[in-house]
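Input for the complex:
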Amino acid sequence: MKAISIGLLGLGTVGSGVIKIIENHQDKLMHQVGCPIQVKKVLVQELGKERAVKIDESVLTTDVNEIINDPGIDVVIEVMGGVEKTRELLLQAIENKKHIVTANKDLMAIYGSELLRAASANGCDLFYEASVAGGIPIIRSLVDGLASDRITKLMGIVNGTTNYILTKMTQEGLAYGDVLKEAQALGYAEANPASDVEGLDAARKMVILATLGFSMKVDLDDVKTTGITKVTEEDLHYAKQLGYTMKLLGIAHRDGERVEVSVQPTLLPHSHPLASVHNEYNAVYVYGEAVGETMFYGPGAGSLPTATSIVSDLVGVVKNMRLEVNGSSAIAPQHEKNLKAPEEIFSKYFLRLHVKDEVGVFAEITSVFAKHGVSFEKILQLPVKEKGVAEIVLVTHKASLKDYEEILMELRDLKALKEVKSSYRVEGSAGA
Amino acid sequence: MKAISIGLLGLGTVGSGVIKIIENHQDKLMHQVGCPIQVKKVLVQELGKERAVKIDESVLTTDVNEIINDPGIDVVIEVMGGVEKTRELLLQAIENKKHIVTANKDLMAIYGSELLRAASANGCDLFYEASVAGGIPIIRSLVDGLASDRITKLMGIVNGTTNYILTKMTQEGLAYGDVLKEAQALGYAEANPASDVEGLDAARKMVILATLGFSMKVDLDDVKTTGITKVTEEDLHYAKQLGYTMKLLGIAHRDGERVEVSVQPTLLPHSHPLASVHNEYNAVYVYGEAVGETMFYGPGAGSLPTATSIVSDLVGVVKNMRLEVNGSSAIAPQHEKNLKAPEEIFSKYFLRLHVKDEVGVFAEITSVFAKHGVSFEKILQLPVKEKGVAEIVLVTHKASLKDYEEILMELRDLKALKEVKSSYRVEGSAGA
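Predicted:
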C-alpha cells in the first residue's frame, strides 16, 4: 500500500525523537494505520552537521519549499518553533492541502483559531496535542469529553520550570533566586527564564485549553497573568502552616456563557490532587458537569514525551486520510468571546500584611473587609517581627475580584498599614 | 441520514443516565457522528414500573430477543451486569453483527479475550471504557499510548469503596469496622462489601488493564489479591510516621516479557501522585518507556460518569460504522501468558513485629534479613507496649517476594518473635 510521506520542519531534540519513534515502531504503526509511514524531507538550518539520529543526508534540506510545495508530501510536522514566519509557512502548506501536526504553543495560542479555520476550509487536519503538556493527552481528552459533557473549569500546572522552582522552594525552604540558579544549572530553566517565570508560557497554554474547552476564542491579552518572581519563602512557610501548597496555576472558569482565564501563583489545599504534582511535572484538572472532577498528570516536556504525542497525532491524521474524513476534527471556536467582569470573578484570597502593633489596628483592618461583606476563613496573627510591627495572615471566604481589589486599595490607605507583603488567590475548595 | 439504533440492556441508574445523555446531547452527537442516534429498545425486568427517566413504554421490553435478534438494532449497550448468561447474550448479539458497548468489569475480566476475539472475527466493535474507573478515559489512553510506546507498569486505585474507607481511617484515625459501617450508611459500600473490601473488584479491573496494557491474557486466578479487612489504625499511624500513605493498589508490572499482577494494601510516599487520590476517587498511574510517568484521575463510579464514558464509546462505534472499520479496534491479547516467578518480583516491604524485649533480639531478627541479603531503608524501634514486649517497624530495601516470604517464615520460627503484626508492600520510589 502507498506509504504516507512526512515533511518534518526542524530536527532538534523533538524532531529527532519523532524520527526515532517512526523508525522503531514502524510495525506497530503499520498495524494501526495499515500503511507504511516514511519521512521524505527534513528541514534543517545547516547540512553536514552532527545529528542526534542517523539520517540519510539526502533527506535533509535547507529549503522549506522542498517540503511545503512538494505535492508528494502528505503531512507536515512542525517542530521548529517561531510564530510569524511559521504561521505563513503552515498557511501555505494548508493551501497545498497538507495536514499539519505541530508542537508550537506560541503559534497555536496566537494564530490557532486562524489556522484551524484554514485547515477545516481546506479539508486538512491540524493536530496540536504536543503544544500543551507534551506527555499528557489532554487535547484529545477534552475533544472526547466535549462530545457528551460540558466543561466548566480547567486548572492547569502547565509549566514545568516554575513547578520545579516552587517545589524546591517549598520542600527545601530555599529562596527563589537560589533555586532559579540551580534550575538553570540543571537545564530545567533557560538562561533567560522570563517567559517561564513571568507566567507567559503558562498563559499561552491556557489560551489553547480555554479556546478548545469552551469553544471560545480567547486571546493572550485576555489572560490576567502573574509570575512567581515575587514569591518568598515566608509566603510558602505560612501557606504550608495554613494547609496550602503553592502552584503557578492556570485557571479557566466558565459560569453560564461567561469565562475567565488567568495565570497566577495560587494556593491549593494539600489534599487537592494538583497539590502533589511536583518538580517538573504538569497536570491539568478538568471539571465537567457530567463526569465531575478528572485530572491528567504527566511530563510537560522532554523530547520523547513530546515526540510521542506528535506521533499519536500523526496516527490520527493518517487514519483520517485513509477514511477520508480529514478536516472534521479541526474545529475553530464556535462562541463569541464573552469575558467575565471583575465583579463576576469569585475566589478566596490569602493576604499577608505588616501592620503597626497598636490597639485597634486589627479591628480597623477587619472593618474594611466587613464593609465589602467579605468574611474570613482563617486568621493568623503572628508575634511582632520587628519593633512596633505585627504580622497578620488572612484567608478570606469567596469574594469578587472587584471587592478584593477595592479592599486592597482601602487597606493601603490605612495609616496603620505598613505593607501588603503578599496576596494570592486560593482555589480547590470542595466542588472544584 | 439513517439513524443509528441502540438496544439497551438494563435500565438502572447507569442505563437511565445513558438515555438522558443521548437525549440532552442529541445535537452535539449529531455534529460528531453525522447522524441521529435513537434508543430503539430497552430491556427491563418488569414493565409499568416507576422510572428515573421519562421513556415511552413501547420502547421497553422484558424479552432480550427483541434486542439481540432484531436486525434493525446496530449497537447493544450492556449495563445489566451478570457474567455467564450475559456472555451468552453478547456472543449471540455479536453473531448477529451487533456492536457492543459494555460497562461490565466482571464479564470483561473473565471473558474479555473471548468476546474481543468474537467481535473482531465478526467485524464488530467491542468497547468497554466504563468497565474500569467509570469517569476516567483510561482504556482509550492505553490504546492510544500503545501505538508509539511500551507500557511497563500500571498502578491503580480502582476501587472507590476501599479508597473511601482507607481515606477516612487515615484522616480520622478510625477503625476499619466503624468506617465500613459509615460507608454502608452513606451508600459508598454495599450491604455485602466482600467483593470490594477483599480486593476482588480491584483484581478484576487490573486483569482488564494488564490484559490490554501488556496485550497478554491474564486470568483472575493469576492476580495475588489481598483486601483491606486486616488493616489497623496502628498500621496507618506508623506508615504516616514513616512518610507513607496506604492505598489498596493494583499493580501490573512487566520486566522484559514477564509480568506480575497483584492487588494489596500498599504504602506510597506522601509525595507520590497516587497518595493524594482521596475518598471514592480512582486513579491509574501508567509508566511507559517513551512517555515516562502519567496518571489519570477521576470518579471511579457514579451513574453520570459511567454513562458518559459509555456514550463516548458509542460515539466511537458509530464513527467506525460510518467509516466501515468496525472490529479493527477489538484486539484480543497477542502474547502468551508469561508470569513472573516469586524470585522475579521485587519490591520494598513494611513490616511490623512484636518481639520479646530482651537483649540480642534485634540482632537475631536483623540477621535473618542479612542471611537473605536484604537490608533496611528505615527502622523504628518503639517503646515497650505491654510488659516484656517491644515493637519493631521496618522498611526493607528491594527484596524478591521469594526471599521476603522465606524471611517471614524464618522470623515466625524465632523464639524471640511474639507476633508479625502486619506486612505491606511499599511502592512508588523514584523511577516508578
